[in-house]
Amino acid sequence: KNVSNCSHHLIEQCPLPQWCNSFCPTFRNQYNGQEIDFFKVFAASGMDSKSMAELLGVNTSTVNAMNANTISTLLLDTFRQKRPQ
Fold it and tell me: Could you tell me which residues come within 8 angstroms of residue 41 by beta carbon, excluding any fewer than 6 positions away?
């Protein structure tokens, strides 16, 4: 199969597939079908601003001052860098 013209690429591991591959379906609440915001997923798993700050290597006030898109981008970059090769 010729994959040179394929716009897809193989991603072997990704902690949050929706960030690594836009073709992955969004997280949905199994009870009401509504899309789940990934920050709510972090909150439900105990990820608070202090934990995010530690993960990103910044202080808590910096995380609190960031908007959701900035945090999302930084978390994605952090996960990609920590992914085993």
Answer: 27
